Amino acid sequence: MPEPLRPAYDVFGFAPGIRTENDLVISGMIGADANLAIPEALDEEVRAAFGAIGLVLEEAGARFSNVISLRSFHVSDTLQNDANVFLKVKGEFMDEPHCAWTMAGVSSLLIPAARVEIEAVARLG
Predict the structure, then answer these.
(1) What is the total count of domains within the chain?
(2) Is 13 exposed, middle or buried (0-12, 13-18, 19+ CB in 10 A)?
(3) What is the pTM (predicted TM-score) of this model?
(4) Domain region containing 108
């Protein structure tokens, strides 16, 4: 387990990722630091969430190019604006070919200040 994600594991009792025979299923990651503080800027929050996904991928010997599916959940009154920010930051981590992606607006996330949570599935074998 990536050490920076241990506090979330201990507090919330979930595995950051589970390896199956061929896939790595990554739990929803928010853009929080070790103290569960959320950055003010949305792009920094999204970047931190992708950074957490990257830690799980690295621990499993995978990269963002292995990701086949993303699901992102957004607390927002301006989902289109969030999509633009999300796509810009996603492009810093992922390139073509694009993976499957579902973006959903939600009313809240577990951490009240969080505005985005990202799940991923990566193909390993």
Answers:
(1) 1
(2) exposed
(3) 0.93
(4) 3-123
Which residue reads 């990722």 in tokens? 17
Q: pLDDT digit of tens for each residue in the chain (125 aa)?
A: 788 888 778 888 889 999 999 999 999 999 988 778 999 999 999 999 999 999 999 999 999 999 999 999 999 999 999 999 999 999 999 999 999 999 999 999 999 999 999 999 999 97
Cα–Cα distance for residue pair 6/50, rounded to 1 Å = 17
SS (H, E, C) 50-118: HHHHHHHHHHCCCCHHHEEEEEEEECCCCHHHHHHHHHHHHHHHCCCCCCEEEEEECCCCCCCCCCEEE
